[in-house]
Amino acid sequence: MNSRSYKSRLRELVRRREFGIFIIIVIVMVLVGLRNPIFFTGDNWKDMLMYASILAFISIGQMMTIVTGGIDLSVGSVVALSGMSVGIIMRDNPALPPVVLILLGTVFGLGCGIINGLLIGKGKVHPLITTLATMSIYRGLVVVVSRSRWVVYGDITKGFKLIARGNILGINNLMFAALIIAVVSYYFLNHTRKGREIYAYGDHQEAAKFVGINSTRINILVYALSGMLAGFGGVLWVSRVHTAQANTALGYEMQTIASCVIGGVSIFGGVGSVFGVLLGTLLFGIILNSLELIGIVDFWKLSVQGFIILVAVIFDAVLSHRVAEQMRKQRRVFDAE
Amino acid sequence: MPNEREKKKRLPLADMLKTWEFTIFMLLIAVFVINLILSPDLFRVANLFDATLTFTEKSILTLPMALLIISGVIDISVASISAMSGVILGVCYKAGMAIGYATVIGLAVGLSAGLLNGVIITRLKIPSIVVTLAMMLFYRGVGYILLGDTAVRDLPQRFGLLGGAYSSTFIPIQFMIFILLAVIFGFLLHRTRFGRLIYIVGNNENTARYSGVRVDRIRLILCGVTGLIAGLSGILLTSRIGSARPDIAQGNEMAVITICLLGGVYIFGGKGSIIGVVIAALMIGYVHYGLSILNVQEQVIRIFTGGLLIIALLIPTIASRFRASVKHRRGGS
Fold it and tell me: Does B232 reside within a domain?
């Protein structure tokens, strides 16, 4: 009895989407490592993980919007806007402690997210079109705010640089932040009422309405969280790369979407896990990082990203159509009996 | 008697649908007037037509996009298709092909890119937005793979005429193409069986399917046409700027969708007209032109376009809320 349940548990684990991603990660790592041994050096891993950490928690915010059946295309622009605003504030008042700057950036992001949420929740505008519009609005605001003067290396204060470079408990700050956010959002999504409501709403919007879930509030919450994480990410981004420009994080939204879709978040809404997104981010980070290591030029990056998203989406669609078909067959059998 | 009453009740709605086109026409006139006040040189007819050169590439794309959105599909990879077509044209020419053949290949690339989108959308039943989002990156990347950060510059003079020349005295060839396409698409949408089917498919996909309408085929055709026109748009743009580059037409997809929605096309399909889209295209075009004459930065103009898009999207919600509150007040009293 006991061994059988162990076996069935093992089978369930193998069947999980996350397990598949894990296997792919291992395969990719081995292939890249064989091609270029630099891949396994500590420095390379630290670089890669620092990049993947920011991507990870912004992707978690993105996941919440996709789970509700929406999407947030404005995250890249929010990263740039928050990073630029914070950079300018820091340039003007170098004495401000970094913690205040982090809070400010997060609040800017939250504001951007709430605007998205209000438009989508209250205005009943399609999420993709809304965030497509706010994406270019926020991006334009970056230029307006900076008055075409970028924040450069010399403007960054020492304390601000330490945000990305420092350690907490021996772990790099960025990774630490990503871990904490992942744990908190795991708890929020799986063990609180609001979190479960997000999934319920995404799974079937009509049914969610009938059980009394307030769609307006869910939308505002989800987009506000996504904007907030992007704003936080913007501060860390500037601290990591030491500059803020008009084209900072251009096209970043695609990377977050790719991480989500690879991590098994369904574009049809209602499905997705924090752990899956973390693995998706890791895989995506490894692929982006290894393109350079195995000697593929930078210009291939866009197409490769698009191709990865497409494959993941097609895979997801085929899978979910098959599940729907199976359920229909089961129902037919049930009806016949 | 009750019949007459019903008629009266339905009239305001019919009026409103009519006045949407009328409203944007009024807006277009307002844009003209403001432009004229700010830069009086625009008043000469030649300048007015000259100004169209800056936005015709986008305008011709709004026509197939309108049909596509009415049928319930959206394609946000159009700008990338434009860039890819232009680049491939340049690469073919550089490889020693005659410019005429290269142009045809550019168009063929656009058509096949659109068809590929359509096949994935209709066969695998994935939301068109997600498919074309991925394709947007993919097609844009193809341009970069082929040319990197270089550009094909020495395109022949003859080819440059396509984007910059004037047909009779002062009307640019590009603008003539736009008018011609507008007539063709208007006829197709409003006067043929195929056009009616587009509305039916957009209004209710399932009903259309059960009534024997070949939904997938219609959408596939429209995707292909959109790709073809996107290719044409890219070629015109390449011709106008005189070089094939992978980074052209950035953000055009948003401008095109904005124009369609401002022109009265309903984002979820089933509603819209070509005349509205044409007026909206002219309006947005002259807004852009006016702003760029005033030396406003491209990024800031994009804020403006984005804001307009959001306003265009909010109009139905606000209108329905307004109508509901009016009804409520009438019912209350």
Answer: yes
